[in-house]
Amino acid sequence: MAGRTVRNRNGRTTSRAIRAAAVTACATLVLAACGSTKDNVASDSGGDGDGSGKVGVILPLLTSPFWQSYNDYVPKMAKSEGVDALKTVNSNSDPSQQITDINNQLNQGVKGLVVAPLDSAAISAGLDQAERKGVPVVAVDVAPEKGKVAMVVRANNVAYGEKACEYLGKQIPSGKVVQIMGDLASVNGRDRSEAFRTCVKKNYPKLKVLEIPAKWESDTAASKLDTLLNANPDIKGIYMQAGGVYLAPTLQTLKSKGLLKKAGEKGHITIVSNDGITQEFDAIRKGQIDATVSQPADLYAKYGMYYIKAAMEGKTFKPGPTDHDSEIVKLPSGILEDQLPAPLVTKDNVDDPDLWGNTAK
After folding, report:
1. Most buried one in 77, 157, 213, 288, CB count within 10 A?
2. At what angle do helices 297-312 and 65-80 cross, to 10 degrees?
3. What is the β-pairing status of strands 54-59 and 89-90?
4. Contacts (Cβ under 8 Å, ≥6 apart) of 84
5. pTM for the full predicted model
6. pLDDT by residue (tens digit) across 295-322?
7. Residue 239 bridge partners (DSSP)
8. What is the rounded radius of gyration, in angstroms, for the C-alpha atoms of the chain?
9. Model confidence over 146-184: pLDDT tens digits?
């Protein structure tokens, strides 16, 4: 029986029936909180593993420059962290396929899994299977709603929305600004959207926020932005929640309407993005956009490997500051999340060699 379809973080559809089944399958799981850095190690005797064994790495998709970069970093970071990682598996934006991919990896006898969930509810079915086999899992980018994971490796998505708000608010005294949102069924989309909206309302009341629910889809972003600009040609700012999918269609739409003006030129629309990909940096240098929040693809790979090795060794962790400029927090679900730093990039620091977007292929 098919339910009403909803869009996942990367634009594909999945039925509520699938989501409901996945949640039901994991309803009896006990939420776990494990994994971080040496200063936060709560226990070194949580298990008798030695950290050895094959590790499966499951990607959500490979059509985004961000995930392409993450995929490139995985083998490098696995080697540096002493993890024996198998070749990555691409779930191709399909939550059901991702569960199948997890089961396939488990059947191959992996001792650990690093997964970037496509759907934070549906992933619980895969986490249930891993727990049954005693295989620890580290989640990257998206926190599961239910299920046992050793650690969530993720940047603070609330800070993404707040940084975008603060940048636009300081550049634009008053007027209309647009936020091109992600999928509101995704915790990432919800966090960024609500943070931006709340920050503007509290700190910059002279700005009027217009919203485009684009569901992480480039074509949806383009068509809805086109329609919005027809009715509101006086837009002064844009916040794109994902440069990997929204940058090209946004610039193309503005160009088609004669609204793509360089920074400093009369009529320039101030644009802030999220991701930190090379294409965004190039757009900043050209004056097409003004800033982006760099989501750390390199650190996602590095600490995904760090935490899975620690989990395989039986280590557990506790909330607090880490030794790598981040903080481990306990989510309302009880799961621990290492919130990695995500710097704001502007023309002033876009050439910083330490930014992963300047070293990615």
Report:
1. 157
2. 40
3. parallel
4. 52, 53, 54, 55, 78
5. 0.82
6. 999 999 999 999 999 999 999 999 999 9
7. 179, 272
8. 20
9. 999 999 999 999 999 999 999 999 999 999 999 999 988
